Amino acid sequence: MRHIALYGLSADPPTGHGGHVGIVQALVDLFDEVHILPVYRHTYQDKRQRLVSFEHRWNMCHRAFADLSPKVVVSDAEYQSWRHAVAGLSEEEAAQVSVGTAALMEYYQSLDNSSVEYYFCLGADAFLDLLAGKWKESQRVLGLLQGRFVVFHRHSADIAMLQEKVQQMPGAQLLEVESLTNVSSSQEHKLYQFDDTR
């Protein structure tokens, strides 16, 4: 059985060793493959309007993660799951559709690879939001993944509460990534200016 980590991110831009790159390096040590999934159309309209194009963010991911390991794959699975969701819709109707994690997991399951287990990787805040039902189709996501979560955290002040929540979900893992800092994509936006014309 192969184990593949799915790591979704806005990638606007991808952050360095104190952020996305550091997380992916930690995941490479645990999994057979790590799939980097730049979000295609953000679920939240306000965030969707601020994102640079999917193609630009996908290219930034290739540049940020290309040399980490042959186990790292930058995937367009979010785009493919969106295409599947809008099949048969008009262009105007399709423009209103965003897909969430449930649709993404169903896309991966449709690949019909019974020798692969997928693990969804996310930060502590996102994990707690999922448990609180704040995600699009939270219960469906939890059911589809059946505990296969890797929750990474910075040096959290409330680590005991987070450990308890992770332990209550059989199969979930808590991953401390030593290199994580308080960096965010919005803070690093000016640091990663990639030229897509090359």
TrEMBL record:
<dbReference type="GO" id="GO:0009435">
    <property type="term" value="P:NAD+ biosynthetic process"/>
</dbReference>
<dbReference type="Pfam" id="PF01467">
    <property type="entry name" value="CTP_transf_like"/>
</dbReference>
<dbReference type="InterPro" id="IPR004821">
    <property type="entry name" value="Cyt_trans-like"/>
</dbReference>
<dbReference type="InterPro" id="IPR014729">
    <property type="entry name" value="Rossmann-like_a/b/a_fold"/>
</dbReference>
<keyword id="KW-0067">ATP-binding</keyword>
<dbReference type="InterPro" id="IPR005248">
    <property type="entry name" value="NadD/NMNAT"/>
</dbReference>
<dbReference type="GO" id="GO:0070566">
    <property type="term" value="F:adenylyltransferase activity"/>
</dbReference>
<comment type="pathway">
    <text>Cofactor biosynthesis; NAD(+) biosynthesis.</text>
</comment>
<keyword id="KW-0520">NAD</keyword>
<dbReference type="GO" id="GO:0005524">
    <property type="term" value="F:ATP binding"/>
</dbReference>
<keyword id="KW-0547">Nucleotide-binding</keyword>
<keyword id="KW-0808">Transferase</keyword>
<feature type="domain" description="Cytidyltransferase-like">
    <location>
        <begin position="17"/>
        <end position="185"/>
    </location>
</feature>
<keyword id="KW-0662">Pyridine nucleotide biosynthesis</keyword>
<keyword id="KW-0548">Nucleotidyltransferase</keyword>
<protein>
    <recommendedName>
        <fullName>Cytidyltransferase-like domain-containing protein</fullName>
    </recommendedName>
</protein>
